[in-house]
Structures are given as C-alpha cells and as structure tokens.
Q: What sequence folds into this?
C-alpha cells in the first residue's frame, strides 16, 4: 500500500482511483480520440478520469456530448461516487453471503434405496 493510501486508511478514509484514462489532459488531445478510447475501456463500475481545468478543455466537452448518450444507449448509468461505492459494497456482501452459504451447506446422500 502506498504511503498516501495508508495515511487515508488510518484516518478512516477510502482511496478511490479511476480505471479509464483517455488522457484528455494531453497537449493536442482531440475529441475523436477521447470518444474512441472511453467505450473500449469502460466496464460496469468504471470510473473515467476527465479534466475540467488546466487549459483548453473544449475537446473534453465535445467528447462528452457524444460519450454520454452513447454510453447510456449501451445501458450505462452515471452515478455519484457514493452511490457507486454503495452498489459495490452491496454486491460484495451478497457474494460473501452466497459463499458462506455454499461453504456451510452439508452435502449428504439422500436416504432411500432402489
């Protein structure tokens, strides 16, 4: 664990990072490259890193006008980080309960005969 992550964890905070980076902050970034990269990298639960400062962000804004409807058409929803973390926690709890149920199940042969 990195020092910043350990620092945050020691204070009861959770570190969250992105998993899709179309590098819209690069000099000469074009909206077409952003539009091409994001759909090929996004999966359910993805966090997409896009920048809103540090220079001209017109390529990012233009890309979003295409990306948002395209991703919605593929069934994706845009949610807050809190909501995403709640969904992931609920899914992990369901998976853990199912695993515990499976582990505790007693498999015994049925009684009776032919």
A:
């Amino acid at each position: 664990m990195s020092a910043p992550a350990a620092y945050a964890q020691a204070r009861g905070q959770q570190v969250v990072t992105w998993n899709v980076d179309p590098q819209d902050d690069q000099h000469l970034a074009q909206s077409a490259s952003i539009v091409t990269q994001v759909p090929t990298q996004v999966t359910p639960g993805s966090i997409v890193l896009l920048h809103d400062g540090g220079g001209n962000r017109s390529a990012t804004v233009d890309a979003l006008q295409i990306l948002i409807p395209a991703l919605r058409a593929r069934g994706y929803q845009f949610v807050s980080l809190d909501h995403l973390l709640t969904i992931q926690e609920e899914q992990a709890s369901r998976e853990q309960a199912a695993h515990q149920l499976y582990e505790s199940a007693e498999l015994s042969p049925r009684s009776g005969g032919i």
In short: The CA atoms of residues 16 and 81 lie 9 Å apart. The chain has four helices and no strands. The helical segments are 3-10, 31-41, 58-73, 81-104.
